[in-house]
Write a structure and sequence with these properties.
Layout lengths: L9 H22 L5 E2 L2 E9 L4 E7 L5 E8 L6 H11 L11 E4 L4 E7 L5 H4 L3 H4 L3 H24 L2 E2 L8 E2 L2 H9 L14 E2 L6 E2 L23 H4 L6 H16 L12 H10 L2 H12 L10 H14 L2
Antiparallel strand pairs: 1-2, 2-3, 3-4, 4-6, 5-6, 7-10, 8-9
Helix pairs in contact: 5-6, 5-8, 5-11, 8-10, 10-11
Bound molecules: adenosine-5'-triphosphate and magnesium ion.
The site of adenosine-5'-triphosphate (ATP) has 19 residues, from strand 2 and strand 4.
């Protein structure tokens, strides 16, 4: 409402305001565009938007089933989404990776990748009231469980010849309440149990690699990943290698243990990271040291996978 209009009385002001509101509503109704569509999927509302892409909540118009639609403008020359779908295709059948439902261009000219709708990301979950109520001991339990699931998921991705390179809370989806129930009920500790199943998303920075030949890979010219969760080797622009993802997983577990934050803005701040991983407790530090060392087996003839497997085992035993 304009600040320049003077009303004779409060009632008159309210009446005029109501009229203004209803005419505005009518205008909005008239102006409202129909939802965008790609194949049989309707894009309903934007869930998140980054510099290159936006993710929508969507639905299958026939079944009403919920989907997540990652979109990119068709005039975006970088083509990150095209790269992402290639990574999804390469990882088809990996349990911690969604099987895409559709890829194509929407009526409104957005490149779209349609994925099943998953649980909230760890970043979103960290803002959940249920998370805020957890005791320190429960938070540590949850951090251990998330870490065990995350390193197992990453090892499976690595075994298919792909590195994620952007492991961070926003890119990990998990039903943390189901995961906690699984932690506390020993009767259901079967590792094939699907409760709280973790999914890795956002393969925009993922890259193929050849096992055992990582050190011969190309050095990137700048950091690839997110400064607060990237490995120290990634900050140093080392050739991409599996242990870098594992190191990032340690920072994600510290994020969970601290109830939704890490005490730094960049892991390039080595002294701060070192102190915080130690303050995170014996378990945190032990996993971090194991993750940092998990690639050192690559000097052995056969050995780069051994380090990861040992870390996965260690993490599983710690739950
Ligand atoms: N399949 C999905 N199910 C549920 N939520 C999803 C799904 N895909 C994406 N999201 C939500 O959208 C957010 C952004 O998705 P994604 O990371 O793929 O896009 P992005 O543009 O690369 O984001 P950013 O640049 O912030 O990493 C995720 O953090 C998550 O909250
Ligand atoms: Mg992301």
């Amino acid at each position: 409402m304009s600040g320049y209009v003077r009303f004779a009385s409060r009632e008159q002001a309210e009446e005029e305001e109501e009229e203004e509101d209803s005419s505005q509503e009518e205008e909005e109704e008239e102006e409202q565009e129909p939802d965008d569509m790609v194949d049989k999927y309707r894009l309903i509302e934007e869930l998140s938007s980054g510099s290159f892409s936006a993710v929508f909540r969507g639905e299958n118009v026939r079944t009403g089933g919920a989907v997540a639609v990652k979109t990119e403008r068709i005039d975006n020359d970088l083509g990150l989404l095209r790269h992402e779908i290639q990574m999804y295709m390469r990882l088809r059948g990996t349990p911690s990776i969604f099987l895409p439902k559709w890829y194509g261009v929407s009526r409104n000219q957005l490149r779209c990748l349609v994925l099943p709708m998953g649980a909230p990301s760890l970043k979103v979950a960290a803002q959940d009231a249920a998370m805020a109520r957890l005791s320190a001991a429960n938070r540590e339990d949850l951090a251990r469980r998330v870490f065990a699931e995350l390193v197992a998921a990453l090892a499976a991705v690595h075994a298919r010849g792909v590195l994620h390179r952007d492991v961070k809370p926003a890119n990990v989806l998990v039903d943390f309440i189901a995961l906690m129930q699984q932690t506390s009920s020993n009767s259901n500790s079967n590792s094939n149990s699907n409760r709280g199943a973790l999914k890795l998303i956002d393969l925009g920075l993922a890259t193929p690699f050849t096992k055992g030949l990582e050190s011969l890979g190309r050095r990137p010219s700048a950091l690839i990943g997110s400064p607060a969760y990237a490995s120290m080797a990634a900050h140093a622009c080392a050739p991409p290698a599996p242990e870098q993802d594992m190191e990032s997983a340690c920072y994600v577990s510290l994020f969970m243990q601290r109830g939704g934050n890490v005490p730094w803005t960049t892991t390039g701040d080595v002294g701060v990271v070192d102190a915080a991983m130690a303050a995170g407790g014996e378990w945190q530090r032990a996993m971090w040291v194991a993750a940092l060392g998990s690639g050192t087996g690559s000097g052995d003839d056969e050995g780069s996978g051994l380090g990861s497997d040992a870390l996965v085992q260690l993490a599983r035993e710690s739950v």
